[in-house]
Amino acid sequence: MTFLSILFALLLEQLKPLRADNPMYAAVKQLAARMEATFNAGQEAHGRMAWVVAMLLMLVPCMAVYWVCLKISPFLALLWNILIVYLTLGFRHYSHYFTSIQMALGSGDEAGARSLLAEWTRQDTTAMNVSDISRIAVEQALITTHRNVFGVFFWFAMPIGPAGAILYRVSEYLARAWNEPEHLKNEAFGRFATRAFYWIDWVPARLTAIAFAIVGNFEDAIYAWRNFAHRWKDEAIGIILSAGGGAMGLRLGTATENAASLPVADAATVDSISVEPEVPPGEEANVRALQSTVGLVWRALLLWMLLLLLLSIAVWLG
Protein backbone atom coordinates (compact mmCIF):
# COMPACT_ATOMS: atom_id res chain seq x y z
CA MET A 1 0.00 0.00 0.00
CA THR A 2 2.93 2.36 0.71
CA PHE A 3 4.33 2.10 -2.81
CA LEU A 4 0.93 2.44 -4.51
CA SER A 5 -0.02 5.42 -2.34
CA ILE A 6 3.16 7.31 -3.22
CA LEU A 7 2.99 6.33 -6.89
CA PHE A 8 -0.58 7.54 -7.35
CA ALA A 9 0.09 10.68 -5.29
CA LEU A 10 3.08 11.52 -7.50
CA LEU A 11 1.01 10.97 -10.65
CA LEU A 12 -1.80 13.11 -9.25
CA GLU A 13 0.63 15.89 -8.38
CA GLN A 14 2.08 15.82 -11.88
CA LEU A 15 -1.42 16.31 -13.29
CA LYS A 16 -2.56 18.90 -10.75
CA PRO A 17 0.15 20.25 -8.44
CA LEU A 18 -0.97 21.97 -5.26
CA ARG A 19 -0.38 25.69 -5.01
CA ALA A 20 1.90 26.87 -2.22
CA ASP A 21 -0.97 28.98 -0.87
CA ASN A 22 -3.58 26.20 -0.83
CA PRO A 23 -6.17 26.12 2.02
CA MET A 24 -4.60 23.13 3.79
CA TYR A 25 -1.23 24.86 4.14
CA ALA A 26 -3.02 28.02 5.24
CA ALA A 27 -4.76 26.03 7.98
CA VAL A 28 -1.42 24.70 9.26
CA LYS A 29 -0.01 28.23 9.32
CA GLN A 30 -3.03 29.47 11.26
CA LEU A 31 -2.70 26.60 13.74
CA ALA A 32 1.01 27.36 14.26
CA ALA A 33 0.27 31.04 14.80
CA ARG A 34 -2.52 30.26 17.25
CA MET A 35 -0.35 27.84 19.23
CA GLU A 36 2.41 30.44 19.44
CA ALA A 37 0.02 33.17 20.55
CA THR A 38 -1.60 30.88 23.14
CA PHE A 39 1.45 29.19 24.67
CA ASN A 40 4.37 31.56 24.16
CA ALA A 41 5.35 33.00 27.52
CA GLY A 42 9.06 33.15 26.75
CA GLN A 43 10.17 29.74 27.98
CA GLU A 44 11.27 26.59 26.16
CA ALA A 45 8.79 24.45 28.10
CA HIS A 46 5.95 26.47 26.61
CA GLY A 47 7.26 25.78 23.12
CA ARG A 48 7.46 22.08 23.91
CA MET A 49 3.86 22.03 25.11
CA ALA A 50 2.69 23.97 22.04
CA TRP A 51 4.54 21.55 19.74
CA VAL A 52 3.00 18.49 21.37
CA VAL A 53 -0.53 19.96 21.30
CA ALA A 54 -0.18 20.99 17.65
CA MET A 55 1.01 17.53 16.69
CA LEU A 56 -1.79 15.80 18.56
CA LEU A 57 -4.35 18.01 16.85
CA MET A 58 -2.94 16.99 13.48
CA LEU A 59 -1.97 13.35 13.98
CA VAL A 60 -4.80 11.91 16.07
CA PRO A 61 -7.59 12.76 13.57
CA CYS A 62 -5.42 11.50 10.70
CA MET A 63 -4.82 8.14 12.37
CA ALA A 64 -8.47 7.87 13.45
CA VAL A 65 -9.71 8.36 9.89
CA TYR A 66 -7.11 5.89 8.61
CA TRP A 67 -8.15 3.15 11.02
CA VAL A 68 -11.85 3.71 10.28
CA CYS A 69 -11.14 3.48 6.56
CA LEU A 70 -9.08 0.35 7.10
CA LYS A 71 -11.91 -1.30 9.04
CA ILE A 72 -14.40 -0.49 6.29
CA SER A 73 -12.24 -1.30 3.27
CA PRO A 74 -8.51 -1.44 2.41
CA PHE A 75 -9.40 0.51 -0.73
CA LEU A 76 -10.70 3.41 1.36
CA ALA A 77 -7.50 3.32 3.41
CA LEU A 78 -5.51 3.47 0.18
CA LEU A 79 -7.48 6.50 -0.98
CA TRP A 80 -6.88 8.21 2.37
CA ASN A 81 -3.15 7.49 2.11
CA ILE A 82 -3.03 8.89 -1.42
CA LEU A 83 -4.78 12.06 -0.27
CA ILE A 84 -2.39 12.58 2.66
CA VAL A 85 0.71 11.97 0.54
CA TYR A 86 -0.64 14.29 -2.13
CA LEU A 87 -1.16 17.04 0.46
CA THR A 88 2.25 16.57 2.07
CA LEU A 89 4.36 16.14 -1.07
CA GLY A 90 5.71 19.24 -2.76
CA PHE A 91 7.54 17.90 -5.81
CA ARG A 92 5.91 20.45 -8.11
CA HIS A 93 5.26 23.32 -5.68
CA TYR A 94 8.33 25.32 -6.65
CA SER A 95 9.72 23.48 -9.66
CA HIS A 96 8.36 26.19 -11.96
CA TYR A 97 10.89 28.61 -10.46
CA PHE A 98 13.77 26.23 -11.15
CA THR A 99 12.58 25.50 -14.69
CA SER A 100 12.03 29.19 -15.45
CA ILE A 101 15.50 30.10 -14.14
CA GLN A 102 17.01 27.35 -16.26
CA MET A 103 15.23 28.63 -19.37
CA ALA A 104 16.18 32.25 -18.63
CA LEU A 105 19.86 31.43 -18.21
CA GLY A 106 19.77 29.21 -21.29
CA SER A 107 18.49 32.12 -23.38
CA GLY A 108 20.97 34.58 -21.86
CA ASP A 109 18.37 36.49 -19.84
CA GLU A 110 20.40 37.00 -16.66
CA ALA A 111 18.15 39.80 -15.41
CA GLY A 112 15.10 37.57 -15.68
CA ALA A 113 16.91 34.76 -13.88
CA ARG A 114 17.90 37.12 -11.06
CA SER A 115 14.31 38.29 -10.71
CA LEU A 116 12.98 34.73 -10.55
CA LEU A 117 15.63 33.68 -8.05
CA ALA A 118 14.87 36.70 -5.86
CA GLU A 119 11.17 35.82 -5.90
CA TRP A 120 11.92 32.19 -5.06
CA THR A 121 14.56 32.67 -2.36
CA ARG A 122 13.52 36.11 -1.08
CA GLN A 123 17.04 37.46 -1.11
CA ASP A 124 18.88 40.23 -2.94
CA THR A 125 20.20 38.90 -6.24
CA THR A 126 21.20 42.21 -7.83
CA ALA A 127 24.95 41.59 -7.82
CA MET A 128 24.83 37.89 -8.68
CA ASN A 129 26.52 36.54 -11.77
CA VAL A 130 25.52 33.42 -13.70
CA SER A 131 27.60 31.16 -11.44
CA ASP A 132 26.00 32.53 -8.27
CA ILE A 133 22.50 32.26 -9.72
CA SER A 134 23.14 28.69 -10.82
CA ARG A 135 24.69 27.67 -7.50
CA ILE A 136 21.91 29.03 -5.33
CA ALA A 137 19.22 27.59 -7.63
CA VAL A 138 20.86 24.17 -7.38
CA GLU A 139 21.14 24.39 -3.59
CA GLN A 140 17.56 25.53 -3.28
CA ALA A 141 16.35 22.68 -5.49
CA LEU A 142 18.22 19.98 -3.54
CA ILE A 143 16.99 21.17 -0.15
CA THR A 144 13.43 21.74 -1.32
CA THR A 145 13.31 18.28 -2.90
CA HIS A 146 14.55 16.66 0.29
CA ARG A 147 12.12 18.52 2.53
CA ASN A 148 9.12 18.14 0.23
CA VAL A 149 9.69 14.66 -1.19
CA PHE A 150 12.32 12.33 0.24
CA GLY A 151 11.71 13.19 3.90
CA VAL A 152 7.99 12.58 3.35
CA PHE A 153 8.74 9.22 1.70
CA PHE A 154 10.73 8.04 4.69
CA TRP A 155 8.18 8.94 7.34
CA PHE A 156 5.23 7.71 5.30
CA ALA A 157 6.97 4.32 5.09
CA MET A 158 7.06 4.13 8.89
CA PRO A 159 4.38 2.10 10.73
CA ILE A 160 2.30 5.22 11.47
CA GLY A 161 1.87 5.73 7.72
CA PRO A 162 -0.02 8.92 6.78
CA ALA A 163 0.52 10.40 10.25
CA GLY A 164 4.26 10.08 9.66
CA ALA A 165 4.08 12.20 6.52
CA ILE A 166 2.15 14.88 8.42
CA LEU A 167 4.58 14.66 11.36
CA TYR A 168 7.52 15.39 9.07
CA ARG A 169 6.05 18.30 7.14
CA VAL A 170 4.41 19.99 10.13
CA SER A 171 7.49 19.63 12.33
CA GLU A 172 9.62 21.15 9.57
CA TYR A 173 7.24 24.08 9.30
CA LEU A 174 7.06 24.65 13.06
CA ALA A 175 10.86 24.67 13.26
CA ARG A 176 10.81 27.62 10.84
CA ALA A 177 7.64 29.39 11.90
CA TRP A 178 8.68 29.56 15.56
CA ASN A 179 12.28 30.63 14.96
CA GLU A 180 12.74 32.66 11.78
CA PRO A 181 10.29 35.61 12.10
CA GLU A 182 11.87 38.73 13.57
CA HIS A 183 9.78 38.65 16.74
CA LEU A 184 10.76 35.03 17.45
CA LYS A 185 14.46 34.99 16.56
CA ASN A 186 16.69 33.84 19.43
CA GLU A 187 13.67 33.20 21.65
CA ALA A 188 13.49 30.11 23.84
CA PHE A 189 9.98 29.26 22.61
CA GLY A 190 11.16 27.79 19.30
CA ARG A 191 14.13 25.79 20.55
CA PHE A 192 12.22 22.57 21.12
CA ALA A 193 10.69 22.71 17.62
CA THR A 194 14.19 23.07 16.15
CA ARG A 195 15.56 20.20 18.20
CA ALA A 196 12.55 17.99 17.46
CA PHE A 197 12.89 18.46 13.71
CA TYR A 198 16.64 17.84 13.93
CA TRP A 199 15.99 14.34 15.23
CA ILE A 200 12.99 13.74 12.98
CA ASP A 201 15.12 14.65 9.96
CA TRP A 202 18.30 12.92 11.15
CA VAL A 203 17.79 9.66 9.26
CA PRO A 204 15.98 11.06 6.15
CA ALA A 205 18.72 13.63 5.53
CA ARG A 206 21.39 10.97 5.52
CA LEU A 207 19.34 8.65 3.33
CA THR A 208 18.89 11.48 0.83
CA ALA A 209 22.63 12.08 0.81
CA ILE A 210 23.27 8.36 0.30
CA ALA A 211 20.77 8.30 -2.56
CA PHE A 212 22.56 11.22 -4.24
CA ALA A 213 25.87 9.40 -3.83
CA ILE A 214 24.53 6.13 -5.28
CA VAL A 215 22.99 7.73 -8.38
CA GLY A 216 25.88 10.18 -8.88
CA ASN A 217 29.64 10.19 -8.34
CA PHE A 218 29.80 8.04 -5.23
CA GLU A 219 33.43 8.63 -4.30
CA ASP A 220 33.30 12.43 -4.56
CA ALA A 221 29.93 12.58 -2.81
CA ILE A 222 31.19 10.64 0.21
CA TYR A 223 34.45 12.61 0.27
CA ALA A 224 32.62 15.94 0.23
CA TRP A 225 30.16 14.71 2.86
CA ARG A 226 32.93 13.64 5.24
CA ASN A 227 35.14 16.69 4.78
CA PHE A 228 32.93 19.68 4.00
CA ALA A 229 29.43 19.10 5.44
CA HIS A 230 30.41 20.84 8.70
CA ARG A 231 30.72 24.18 6.89
CA TRP A 232 26.99 24.68 7.23
CA LYS A 233 25.39 25.68 10.51
CA ASP A 234 22.51 23.30 9.77
CA GLU A 235 24.05 19.83 9.88
CA ALA A 236 21.40 18.14 7.76
CA ILE A 237 21.59 20.75 5.03
CA GLY A 238 25.37 20.55 5.03
CA ILE A 239 25.20 16.78 4.50
CA ILE A 240 22.68 17.03 1.66
CA LEU A 241 24.40 19.85 -0.20
CA SER A 242 27.93 18.52 0.19
CA ALA A 243 26.88 15.02 -0.94
CA GLY A 244 24.70 16.39 -3.73
CA GLY A 245 27.43 18.69 -4.97
CA GLY A 246 30.00 15.91 -4.86
CA ALA A 247 27.65 13.57 -6.71
CA MET A 248 27.37 16.11 -9.55
CA GLY A 249 30.97 17.31 -9.47
CA LEU A 250 29.93 20.79 -8.28
CA ARG A 251 31.19 23.05 -5.52
CA LEU A 252 28.16 24.18 -3.55
CA GLY A 253 28.30 26.77 -0.81
CA THR A 254 31.26 28.97 0.04
CA ALA A 255 33.63 29.11 2.97
CA THR A 256 32.88 32.73 3.85
CA GLU A 257 29.21 33.36 3.20
CA ASN A 258 25.81 31.71 3.24
CA ALA A 259 25.65 28.53 1.20
CA ALA A 260 22.06 29.41 0.35
CA SER A 261 19.59 31.75 1.98
CA LEU A 262 16.44 29.70 1.68
CA PRO A 263 13.03 31.37 1.91
CA VAL A 264 11.14 31.47 5.17
CA ALA A 265 8.23 29.59 3.60
CA ASP A 266 10.21 26.80 2.00
CA ALA A 267 13.29 25.68 3.86
CA ALA A 268 15.60 26.40 6.73
CA THR A 269 18.35 29.03 6.52
CA VAL A 270 21.70 27.61 5.40
CA ASP A 271 24.90 29.20 6.64
CA SER A 272 28.51 28.20 6.21
CA ILE A 273 30.47 28.73 9.35
CA SER A 274 34.09 27.96 8.73
CA VAL A 275 36.81 29.15 6.44
CA GLU A 276 39.21 26.48 5.28
CA PRO A 277 41.99 26.59 2.76
CA GLU A 278 41.01 23.26 1.22
CA VAL A 279 38.65 23.56 -1.74
CA PRO A 280 35.83 21.01 -2.20
CA PRO A 281 36.09 18.82 -5.29
CA GLY A 282 34.21 19.81 -8.43
CA GLU A 283 33.61 22.79 -10.67
CA GLU A 284 31.86 26.08 -10.14
CA ALA A 285 28.14 25.93 -10.86
CA ASN A 286 27.00 27.03 -14.32
CA VAL A 287 23.94 26.73 -16.53
CA ARG A 288 24.69 23.05 -17.21
CA ALA A 289 24.58 22.40 -13.47
CA LEU A 290 20.84 23.02 -13.50
CA GLN A 291 20.29 20.18 -15.94
CA SER A 292 22.59 17.96 -13.88
CA THR A 293 20.46 18.71 -10.84
CA VAL A 294 17.30 17.66 -12.65
CA GLY A 295 18.94 14.38 -13.60
CA LEU A 296 20.24 13.74 -10.09
CA VAL A 297 16.86 14.40 -8.47
CA TRP A 298 14.97 12.16 -10.89
CA ARG A 299 17.49 9.33 -10.50
CA ALA A 300 17.28 9.63 -6.72
CA LEU A 301 13.47 9.62 -6.96
CA LEU A 302 13.54 6.43 -9.02
CA LEU A 303 15.91 4.85 -6.49
CA TRP A 304 13.56 5.70 -3.62
CA MET A 305 10.60 4.28 -5.56
CA LEU A 306 12.51 1.08 -6.29
CA LEU A 307 13.37 0.64 -2.63
CA LEU A 308 9.76 1.28 -1.62
CA LEU A 309 8.58 -1.26 -4.20
CA LEU A 310 10.97 -3.88 -2.83
CA LEU A 311 9.84 -3.08 0.71
CA SER A 312 6.18 -3.44 -0.30
CA ILE A 313 6.86 -6.76 -2.01
CA ALA A 314 8.67 -8.02 1.08
CA VAL A 315 5.69 -7.05 3.24
CA TRP A 316 3.22 -8.71 0.88
CA LEU A 317 5.27 -11.92 0.75
CA GLY A 318 5.72 -11.88 4.51
From TrEMBL:
- Chief place of localization: membrane
What UniProt keywords apply to this chain's record, in alphabetical order? Cell membrane, Cobalamin biosynthesis, Membrane, Transmembrane, Transmembrane helix
Protein's pathway? Cofactor biosynthesis; adenosylcobalamin biosynthesis
> According to its UniProt record, where is this protein located?
Cell membrane
Residue stretches spanning the membrane: 49-68, 75-94, 149-168, 296-317
Q: Which Pfam families match?
A: CobD_Cbib
InterPro entries with a match to the protein in the record:
Cobalamin_biosynth_CobD/CbiB
The way this protein sits in the membrane is described as:
Multi-pass membrane protein
Taxonomy, superkingdom? Bacteria
General function of this protein:
Converts cobyric acid to cobinamide by the addition of aminopropanol on the F carboxylic group.
Which family is this sequence assigned to? Belongs to the CobD/CbiB family.
Q: What protein am I looking at?
A: Cobalamin biosynthesis protein CobD
Gene name tied to this protein: cobD
